[in-house]
Design goal:
Layout (H helix, E strand, L loop, with lengths): L7 E5 L2 E2 L28 E2 L10 H14 L23 E2 L8 E8 L10 E11 L2 E4 L9 H4 E5 L6 E2 L6 E2 L4 E3 L1 E6 L13 E5 L24 E6 L15 E6 L3 H8 L8 E4 L21 E4 L2 E8 L11 E5 L4 H8 L12 E4 L5 E4 L10 E2 L9 E7 L8 E6 L4 E4 L6 E8 L5 E8 L8 E6 L4 E4 L11 E4 L9 E2 L12 E4 L5 E4 L13 E4 L5 E8 L8 E6 L4 E4 L13 E4 L7 E2 L1
Antiparallel strand pairs: 1-26, 2-3, 4-15, 5-6, 5-8, 6-7, 7-13, 8-11, 9-10, 12-13, 14-15, 14-17, 16-19, 17-18, 18-19, 20-21, 20-39, 21-22, 23-24, 24-25, 25-26, 27-28, 28-29, 29-30, 31-32, 32-33, 33-34, 35-36, 36-37, 37-38
Amino acid sequence: MFSAHEGRGRWRRSRTAVLAATVAAGAVSLFLATPAQAGDPQPPVLHPAGHASAPSQAELRARVAGAVAADNGPSRTKLSANPHEVDPKIIGGTTTTISSAPWMVQLWYFDDKGTASTADDDSFFCGGTVVSPSKILTAAHCVAGFNWNLHGLVLSGTDQLPTDSADGTTSDLHGGTLTGVWRQWSNPTYDHPEFDNDVAVLTLDVPTTAKPLPITTATDSASYVTGTQGTVYGWGRTSSGSQDISQTLRKATLPVAANTACSAAYGSTFVAGHMVCAGAPASGADAGTTATCNGDSGGPLVVAGKIVGVVSWGAKDCVAKGTYSVFSRVSAYVGAINPRIDDANLSLDDKADLVAVTPAGSAYSYVSTGSAFAPKASMSDPGGFSGVNLVRQSDLDRNDFQDLVVRTTDGRLFWLDGDSGDSGDSVLIGPGWNVMKSIITPGDVNGDGLPDVVATDTSGNSWLYPGNGKGTLGARTKIGAGWNIFNGQIYGKGDLTGDGRPDIIARDSTGTLWLYKGTGLASGPWAARTKIGTGWNAYNAFAAVGDITGDGKADLVARDASGTLWLYKGTGSASGPYAAKVKIGTGWNVYNLFG
């Protein structure tokens, strides 16, 4: 029986490594797995509190000392052969403090290539923005082709660059905190020669305490209206005549420029819809120019408290007459960025995994390899989940370790913290949840950057329980009525339509499946429903756990009456959110719960 002692209990988390798929001989399915039988080998257990790849503070200090000492220009000078040089700075700005931009971070990279010579050293600097406690949004040209886990670091909580000691072996961090990079993602469509699709996300080893800056929405057009005032932040060069970057964080106010003006200045290199220009035309000299420059790469353009642009490129030396600062247009990439912000999972990669529980209460994880499920791994002692009638996955405390939300048969709802080593803490969210026919964890429903819970009661009323980022929930608000037509058959985790907002699906008594597209508004989180299709009453269980295949689109698994499990791969299209089903395997009727 699942239990908690005065609201706290223990559970075993299996941190399973991603293994090669075990495919049955002669199988032709693209995505295969079957419930492993007793005696089947299980993946090794990993302990999240200390990823094997996490660098020590001593190693991080050595990296930053090496980067500061070797810095010969804060951005990637090896890109200088390109027609637009990636090395932006703020010219004409003013100094500011980290308290006014707490989400601003420094990205330092240093790789000495293991040689005694410094000629082959790879060292550069970029800016970045905290967009969730463990996620940094930056430019793809700062990330693609580099191993940030082995050679990079993030410095947060300071408006000063590190200063080198006399012997170059240590650095004064000026109150900042060094953090390693766990994993990295750069837009797979990033175009290196032209710097199109120039966005990336770094995942930190340890969440930062810095306040995140929300990213804009996919439907945001107001922020890009010509003349709209935006603010850019960075430590980049402050003069076209010097390669020195600014010791202190700077900011500048730049008006959004018309696409036609940017195209006139840069020709086809400027891609309207993917990029946005800002600032008045440069004067040709430092005087009269306010622009980004070398060292500002990856930093934010902020409008109305949200990041709408990422510093990408500009003219050589940043003050060429008639040119503008160019940013990646964040609204164009929300559908790609948000799945990388909310991508916690059981196996510590970027693909969602499946939890399955037997009637006897034994819980197992099935780790996705992207094209298959690895063999099952135990998540509890035998019977450890007996007395549980609902399991959902959600990173409620936003630390990039997947948590579970479970309900017991007596109506208590628990948060099972995923970041507590081999045994995680079970924290009582509250009693009385047996009045709910449906409980789902779609993601950030209300647009505050934190995962939420949505529940529908037996009367058909739907409630939003806002996450507080600490694993528990805030006061609920009613978001609709009439949901009892679905008899609790409501599911969802992740973005089905490619706009960066979580969506949900619901099946009615006739077997018709409906899509409720997310709006990002707490007062009305769902748009009017649209019909997905009929015949879905062929299934007796569903699991919506997010992006199983790793392509950034939310997927769905469904089990039919024969015990066959099917994958419906997400398409990212509201008109047809799922591709044709693919058989996962048979024998899945041994489980009564999925999540």
